[in-house]
Sequence to fold (351 residues):
Amino acid sequence: MIGVAYGPTGLLINPRDTLEGILARGAVWGSVFLGAAGYYWRTLQFSEFLVAPLPGKAAVFLLNGLVAVGWMALLISLVHLACRLLGHRQGHWRDLFCLWGYTQVPAIILAALVMAFLSLVPATWRMELEIAWIALGVAVAVLLSLWGLVLKFQAVKVCYDLSGRRLFQVIVLAFALYGLVVWAEFAFVAERGFVPHRALPAMTPTVLPLTVGGRFISLPFGKLTYQVRPPRRGEIVGFVAPGWDAFPSVIVRPRQRLLGRVVGLPSEEVEVRRGQVYLNGRPYEEPYRLGGTDLDVPPTRVPPGHYFVLGDNRDVPLMAYHGGLVPQGRIRGRMSEVGGLWQFLVGKGRW
Fold:
């Protein structure tokens, strides 16, 4: 699809001439394809919320390609707007669209390496990697990221004929505009929360490769869903504990989340007998339930504005993850379930 003259080698050795040659061809489909591939994982969670009414996860995976291209178009628009706000009238949005997808080649390579690592390297080996291998992986990621930035700078220079101070001003303003977009995304659409290890056994993950300081695992939570509707039974939610005092880090504290599954809705009576949930006196079928029969909770009426949250593993007491009655105001988001994607985070696709 990409000719030899315009392949990764040319983008690495002589990026400016390669990008100029691509622009001279005027075709946009190569950029569209590479842009969709480069931003595919970046937009997958957003697509789940966007096309949730459509049946099946296949619809999410198919339409996410369009969403990824839309995200690329948004980023290009931010750069174009920065140029216009600073008074630079040369260059066209379409020209940058023809090139931007090619600047995602390093990101595509990095994503392929990460997926190959997670798929082929056993989880037990990942946890025992020596510092030299970890440093090598970080170095590769940094170098690929820098290559991607260089390609983006070159694309802006080629399309808008900018250099030196003018290019620097455009890049700074574009980053500021991008920061506003990211802030809005994390405030209203999705966030990455930090789940402490002590709260994870309630949901029985088996592998924790993405840890922060050895005490937390970073997991994605969707916030947009609960902006438009209340939580539903069976959904795994990230919620805040009833106090921040026990949380050690000032940086991690505002984004620390606990995990549990919604089993009881407002006005329902919830009871747990030997690990089995009863709703309004009737047993509730839970295919996800694990663990023994030690957990008992007396009949509890869920008040308005509250939900009854339990872990799947009934061997874990409620206080270990602050389960039970949880006010809706403490529920911050829903864990995405698209395609069992989080099997790479927890070692199984069961969630």
